[in-house]
Amino acid sequence: MATYTGTLTTFEGMPTPSGREPLAAAYKKEAMGPRTSPTEHQRRLGHELNKMRLAAGVSAEAVASLLGVDRSKISNIERGMRAISPERLRSWACHCACSDASYVEALAKMAQSRTRGWWERYRGVLPGGLLDIAEMEAYAMRLRTAHSVHIPGLLQTVDHARTIFGAVVPPLPEQELELRLVHRLERQRILTQEDPPEYYGIIHEAALRMQFGGRSVARAQLEHLINMSELSHVTLRVLPVASGAFPGAGQTLVYAEAEVAQLDTVQIDSTHGPDFLYGDTQLAKYRGQLDWLERLALEPDDSRKFIHDISRQL
Predict the structure, then answer these.
(1) Residues 166-214: pLDDT tens digits?
(2) Would you call 20 exposed, middle or buried from its count of C-beta atoms within 10 A (0-12, 13-18, 19+)?
(3) What angle do CA 171, 215, 7 make, to 5 degrees?
(4) Most buried residue among 48, 126, 270, 285 by CB atoms closer than 10 A?
(5) Whole-prediction pTM value?
(6) Are 267 and 133 in contact (CB under 8 A)?
(7) CATH topology for the 40-112 domain
(8) What CATH class has 127-313?
(9) Contacts of 143 (CB under 8 A, 6+ apart)
(10) What is the Cβ-side half-sphere exposure of residue 101, based on CA atoms within 13 angstroms?
(11) Domain range list for the chain
C-alpha cells in the first residue's frame, strides 16, 4: 500500500494560525474550560432522547421528576449540552415505554463514550465540522460513500489533498492548510487500524479524470486507489460517464451505518461546511440513492481495471 513518507509537521509541534503558541498548549487550555457547544455526536444523542420522549407523549417535567433533576437539565440533555449516564438513559427509555432493546443499548453506548477522541486536539484551531466528520467516522460500523467530482477524503494522497485545500476561496493561511492535511491523515488511519469499519465507495469517472496537482499527482492518486481497493474491507466501484444520469449528481455523500439503523447518519458537503442528516425520511432517501448508484456502477474487479486504464493514459 502506498503511504506518505514526507515531513508534515506533527500536531504538537505546529504553531496555531496566530503563530503565538504550540497547538498542544492551546488544546490543554481549551480542555480545562467547559464545552461551550456540543459535538455532532452529543447533539445526535440529545435529538434521539427528545424524539423518544415526544413520541411517547411524556413531558419534560415528568422525565425531570423521574431522574431527580431540574427541568432545565432535561432541555440541556436534549440539546446535547449536558451528559446523561447510561443508567439514567435506560430509566428515560423505560419511562417512555421504548421497547427496542438494541436501540436503547446503542444509545447507552453513545452516552458512555466520554473519552476524548484524537480529533479533540484540533478543537478551536480547525472548523468544528471537520472534527464532527472524524467523530462520525470513528463510531461508524460501515461507511458507504458516493463522490462524483472529488476523490473521497479517506482515500486521498497528501499531494492530492494539498491541491484541494489550496483551491479554497479565500485562500487558507499556510499553517491552517498544513493543519488540515495532518488532520486528514489522522482520519485516514481508520481504514488501516485494527478492526476497521467496512468501506464501500462509489466514485464517478469524472472524479478519476480530474488532474488536481498535475499528471504525476493524479497518477499517484489513482495508483493509491488501486492499492486501497485491494484491502479486504475496502470496496471501490466506478460509475462510468456512459452510465448516464443518476440521483445526487455533483453531490458528495457519506452514509455512516451505526450499530442500529435508527442511529445511521448522512453527511453531505456544502460550501459552508458539512451537513449531518438523520431523519427517517432522509435516511431512506439516501439509502435508496446509494442502492441506485450501486446498480449502475461497475463491479469491483472491473472498477480496478477501469482506474488502472485511466492511470495509464496520464
Answers:
(1) 998 899 999 999 999 999 999 999 999 999 999 999 999 999 999 999 9
(2) exposed
(3) 60
(4) 48
(5) 0.86
(6) yes
(7) 434 Repressor (Amino-terminal Domain) (1.10.260)
(8) alpha beta
(9) 137, 154, 197, 198, 199, 200, 201, 254, 255, 256, 257
(10) 0
(11) 40-112, 127-313
